[in-house]
Amino acid sequence: MINKSIATPNSLYEQDFYLWIETTAQHLKEGKFDELDLTNLIEEIESMGRSEKRELKSRLIVLLMHLLKWQYQPEKRSESWRSTISEQRICIEGLLEDSPSLKPLISEVFDDCYQKARLKAADETGIKLNFFPKESPFTLEETLQTSFF
Q1: 6-18 pLDDT per residue, tens
Q2: Residue 121, class by beta-carbon neighbours within 10 Å (0-12 exposed, 13-18 middle, 19+ buried)?
Q3: For residues 19 and 7, what is the distance between their CA atoms, to the nearest angstrom?
Q4: Separation between Cα atoms, residue 144 and residue 90, nearest integer Å
Q5: Using one digit for the tens of pLDDT, what is the confidence trace for 46-103?
Q6: Which of 5, 90, 103, 130 has an alpha carbon within 20 to 30 A of 58's alpha carbon?
Q7: Nearest to 12 by CA among 48, 45, 47, 36
Q8: How far apart are the C-alpha atoms of 115 and 141, rounded to whole Å?
Q9: Span 29-45, mean pLDDT?
Q10: Which residues contact 20 (CB under 8 A, 6 or more apart)?
């Protein structure tokens, strides 16, 4: 166990991340700003923002991939695919509700996510990549709309 009284903020961060979080939160609550490990705190906050962006993009890729599979493999449609489509839409909606500033990002990354989804769909289905349209056959609005497919 780490002795909090002798641990420097940086060593606490490196030795016991959970304790560092607890200590940092307590310092913030108590207004002990001079005792904060600002370097690591800033890094963690920036990391949280990147994580939110990655999750949004990842969920959009999975959603688009399943929409492609749904459209181009109608004979293989399953409840599992339908469930995945629904789950990704619900999670994306939740992300956008929790962080409305991500809404412009989804438009910016849509085309790139579609290209990645196209690659993944080709890989998963064994269908040649050029079978899937180079441009998304779905608009962003359709992609996120619960009644679409």
Answers
A1: 455 568 899 999 9
A2: buried
A3: 11
A4: 9
A5: 999 899 999 999 999 999 999 999 999 999 999 999 999 999 999 999 999 999 999 9
A6: 130
A7: 36
A8: 17
A9: 94
A10: 9, 12, 13, 37, 40
- Do 85 and 66 touch, CB atoms closer than 8 A? yes
* 3-state SS string for the chain: CCCCCCCCHHHHHHHCHHHHHHHHHHHHHCCCHHHCCHHHHHHHHHHHHHHHHHHHHHHHHHHHHHHHHHHHCHHHCCHHHHHHHHHHHHHHHHHHHHCHHHHHHHHHHHHHHHHHHHHHHHHHHCCCHHHCCCCCCCCHHHHHCCCCC
Give the separation between CA 104 and CA 94, rounded to whole angstroms.
15
CA dist 6 and 11 (Å) reads: 10
Residue 135 CA to its chain's centroid (Å): 23
The reported pLDDT for the residue numbered 10 is 61
